[in-house]
Design a protein that fits this description.
- The chain is of the alpha+beta class.
- The protein folds into two domains: 67 residues, 2-Layer Sandwich (VC0802-like), CATH 3.30.2130; 71 residues, 2-Layer Sandwich (Alpha-Beta Plaits), CATH 3.30.70.260.
- Helix content is 32%, strand content 41%.
- The protein is built from five helices and seven strands; from the N terminus they run βαββαβαββαβα.
- Strands 1, 2, 3, 4, 5, 6 and 7 form a seven-stranded antiparallel sheet that branches.
- The longest helix has 11 residues.
- The protein is globular and about 45 Å long.
């Protein structure tokens, strides 16, 4: 079961640097990230090479952090591929709570990180298509 970290951050200079320093000091690689701001505060989502170790390190340094379960789908990097993934989920009544992506393999593939309400339904729906779900080992080894 794969996870990413969600870190509550105050929107001020140096806050992100403190988070990345904690992770770097523990030898953790950030595979992908997403930052959402809501004025004075925001949420940083981090796909780390070892989320459990990252969670513990951030907690020890007094950050408000949670580990959230995710799926990572490997899709072709082409127009409409993300749409196809989202249609598959919505047609199976799976709500996407969070989503971000990054390009792999020199622009041939994209990894889409998805946080959903209904994991078994999402996994079944995507397994029935040509969309490949990346294993935990593959995710953390990207």
């Amino acid at each position: 079961m794969a996870h990413h970290l969600s870190v509550f951050v105050v929107n001020e200079p140096g806050k992100l640097e403190k988070i990345t320093r904690v992770l770097a000091d523990r030898g953790l690689n950030i595979r992908a990230f997403s930052l959402s701001s809501a004025g004075e505060f925001g949420v940083l989502r981090i796909l780390a090479s070892d989320p459990e170790k990252g969670y513990a390190a951030l907690k020890e340094n007094h950050f408000t952090v949670t580990m959230r379960r995710i799926l990572v789908a490997l899709i072709d990097d082409r127009p409409g591929a993300l749409h196809d993934l989202l249609v598959t989920l919505s047609s199976n009544r799976v709500n996407v709570e969070d989503c971000y992506g990054f390009v792999l393999e020199g622009g041939k593939k994209a990894a889409i990180v998805v946080e959903v309400e209904k994991f078994p339904e999402a996994e079944r729906a995507l397994a029935a298509t040509r969309i490949h779900l990346i294993s935990d080992d593959e995710i953390y080894g990207l």
